[in-house]
Amino acid sequence: MSDPDLHWALAASGDPARRIHAVTPEELPALLARLDPAAAGFLGEAGFTAEAGKLALLPGRTGLAAAVLGLGSAASSPFTYGALPFGLPENTTWQLDEAADAEAALLGWMLGAYRFTRHKAPGRRPARLIPPGDAPAVQRAQVLAEAMLRARELINLPAADLGPAELSDATRALAERCGAHFEEFAGEPLAHGFPAVAAVGAGSYRAPRVAVIRWEGAADGPLVALCGKGVCFDTGGLDLKTPDGMKRMKKDMGGAAIMLGLAEALMRLGAPIRLLVAIGAVENAVSSTAMRPLDVLRTRAGLTVEVGNTDAEGRLVLADLLAFAAEQKPSLLLDAATLTGAARVALGPDLPALFTNDEAFAVALSAAGDACHDPLWRLPLHEGYASWLDSSVADLNNVGSRPMAGSIVAALFLSRFVPRGIRWAHLDVYAWNDAARPGRPEGGEAMGLRALHAGLMSLLPA
């Protein structure tokens, strides 16, 4: 997988370091009593109240002595710590005091330190943090951060740098790094086994691939299957997008990046499962060989699909992937995709839309997202709209007959490729930060990754 420099913001445990005091408003008086009177007086004169995310630098006799971070009164979020790497002076090294939430702090620090630097040197380096111990929770936070940063890096890569072959290579690299088996389908095997994926990629000179990882973490563990939409660039096909609509379509492989990041976290943290990952790596381009409106496509599941719109290509890719994964009879099946603008109209950029056919799955994923500050929002698989996908010439159309409920209709389309009895969840994500916020720089974002990891782990046998 494309590998950003993951550790430039971390320092060795023996390095000299200044201290960061992390404090709630309730704890502030006790901190002021412990500090040197001059430092306590400085904080008082500056009006520091320990508001969440507020940072104060404390002067010493020879320069900067320490820093104080406000945590606010709510439960600690990693993003409270997200501004520290660039809020503290460059070329300085820091360690947290014992009051800080070590897991949230390390996660927030690493997420906040990331910048996409493949084509532009960074203006400055972040400050460095000594990792706060080696407790299992801290180790988990570092692995999750590294998985998210690799996912961000993939999403941020321009389409000229990341085509179907390169996305498949990134999947291969992940498998090799985690001791998993890798398999790639291309050419005739792809056309035969994944005909809808092949049809979506037929218009591009960069041939489509399906990349598969198999990992035996626990020989007798449940099988978890992950499917990711990896459309490396989406022109909309012959139903061409507008210039504005096409501008960020390098991120249309965000679902694949999130699934690869989730797979990395599950494997590196030793989840007691067997894992199957299927990535549909493809480019939806315009040419004389591109699929056309009203073409009828064959799918791996045997269903035929009328192409009502060539810009609804992601669901065609996932249709074949879901059918392939379902053949393995997984205990849990999960997919992620930057699938519909309708989900963003309904929920905005920050909330991935969650659809699932299983109540316990829904509760586990939603509760995990709330607990780890990575929220998901469930939308209904309303069967009353299923007839909107009817076609007079095929088993179903790839778009609805009415200009409403687009994300629900897309999820209903996908559900046709998930056999009854398989517990399935679908995540419709934006995978992008439109503007920079603490811990969330502008650009690609692995939305839902931590929620999915925590939710899946909560469903596994102890």
From TrEMBL:
CDD domains: Peptidase_M17. The keyword Lipoprotein does not apply. Residues 309-316 form the Cytosol aminopeptidase domain. InterPro entries: Leucine_aapep/pepB (IPR011356), Macro_dom-like (IPR043472), Peptidase_M17_C (IPR000819), Peptidase_M17_N_1 (IPR048816). One of its GO terms (cellular component) is cytoplasm. Pfam families: Peptidase_M17, Peptidase_M17_N_1. GO terms for biological process: proteolysis. GO terms for molecular function: manganese ion binding; metalloaminopeptidase activity. The keyword Protease applies. Keywords: Aminopeptidase, Hydrolase, Manganese, Protease. Gene3D superfamilies: Leucine Aminopeptidase, subunit E, domain 1 (3.40.220.10), Zn peptidases (3.40.630.10). Belongs to the peptidase M17 family. This is Leucyl aminopeptidase. It comes from Muricoccus roseus. The lineage of its organism: Bacteria, Pseudomonadati, Pseudomonadota, Alphaproteobacteria, Acetobacterales.
